[in-house]
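Q: Fold this one first, please.
A: Sequence and structure below.
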Amino acid sequence: MSELKDRLRSDLTGAMKARDELRSSTLRMVLSAITNAEVAGKVARDLTDDEIIGVLSTEGKKRREAATAFAEAGRTELADKETAEAAVIAEYLPEQLDAAAIAEVVTAAIQQTGAAGEGMRAMGKVMGVLQPQVRVAELGDDHGRGH
């Protein structure tokens, strides 16, 4: 089993013992989403930590979108609940890169591939180098962490 899934289960037990309803319900929901992803498809399998991070990112994004929709509808109590759930989920996601860090990584990838001056034709080479480095950033929040 992945370390992240173990940590989620352990934290769920701790939240239940501490009678932290928000954390307990959020972690139960996340673990349920992970289980659903594991049994989706033809053969059930254990997800890797990277795949679990993808599930967490998706669940966090759903909470942020729901919070925005509730806030726009004037349902602040529900918006606050969704925002709090998103904050719990964000604790399990790696730090997101800020704009300066992204620019630095992209510049390094362009130099590494020798793609400077090649324009859009070099995009594939550059993206091939970038993807493994920023994989989690693309799965997470478009505007950084903590929203």
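Q: Good. Now the second chain.
A: Here it is, same layout.
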Amino acid sequence: MGRYMLRRLANYLMLLIVASTMAYFLAAMSLNPRSNFEQQKPRPSIQQIDATLRTYNLDPSTPVVVRYAHWANGVIHGNLGINIKGDSVNNDFGRRLGVSTRLLVIATIIGSLGGVMVGAQGAIKQYRFFDRWTTLSSFFLLAMPVFVVAISLEIFAVDINQAAGTTVIQYIGEYNPDLSGFWPVMLSRLQHLILPTIALSLFQIAQYSRYQRNTMLDVLGSDFLRTARAKGLSRRNALMKHGLRTAILPIVPLLVYNIVLLFTGATFTEKIFGWHGMGEWLVDSITTNDVNSVAAVSLFTALLVLVAGLLSDLLYSALDPRVRFS
């Protein structure tokens, strides 16, 4: 298995290099960082703009290959460059990554586990009320745009706050910056975390439950479940110990890739609820022609794909004892 994983790691590293290189070239050749300085009032001189762009490694008169080599050398040494405002991309990266992590950890746990359990239960209770209700609710959620769900949750929060006569749920920002002290800040963070967590969890539960239901239906009539029942296992134990473990195998890659790539894919949720995470950073970097920031997010996304691929392989081998890597 070790040799197999090393080969997979080598393949993923090559994909990481290719993907990040193509992303940098695409950003460097399509974005126009000069326009940011030309729109300033008072407008800097051409000489000042050229000097600033050279300092930031964004000068279009410098061959893109040379700029890429400078950027790649910095990445190797842990330096992601300078953003369009003259600040370190590393600082932006660390701050945004922390925000996305705090936002997504709870939501992904609830969404993935909830989706698997709802889908499995729906298959077990096929065509009963629970199955029909969860199926209808899932398709309803998946058909709705993210911003509609988010705004609906915000309206719901306003109604709750009015009914309670106090602020129970906050829905803009990560926390109240006017507060001080550990517990007041922690309470504020929890109040701000409720709605985006619900929004992200609902969509994940709706998506994963559909896949899990179908895979669970495929194993309900299998021979190994009948054998388990014949050996004395109750129906519940047989389904949970053998059926669910087998049914989850086909969706392991989907779960892992979606969960990991959500770090840069929760753009709408971050924008609507005012969380300044990785997804929002990517959109803002493109709109401001910030080449180095776009390249940093692209590199991070490619790294996430590498991690997701390795995790998927490890989980698949752990869940399926028939798999042997050589």
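Q: Anything worth noting on the second one?
A: The two ends are 5 Å apart (CA to CA).
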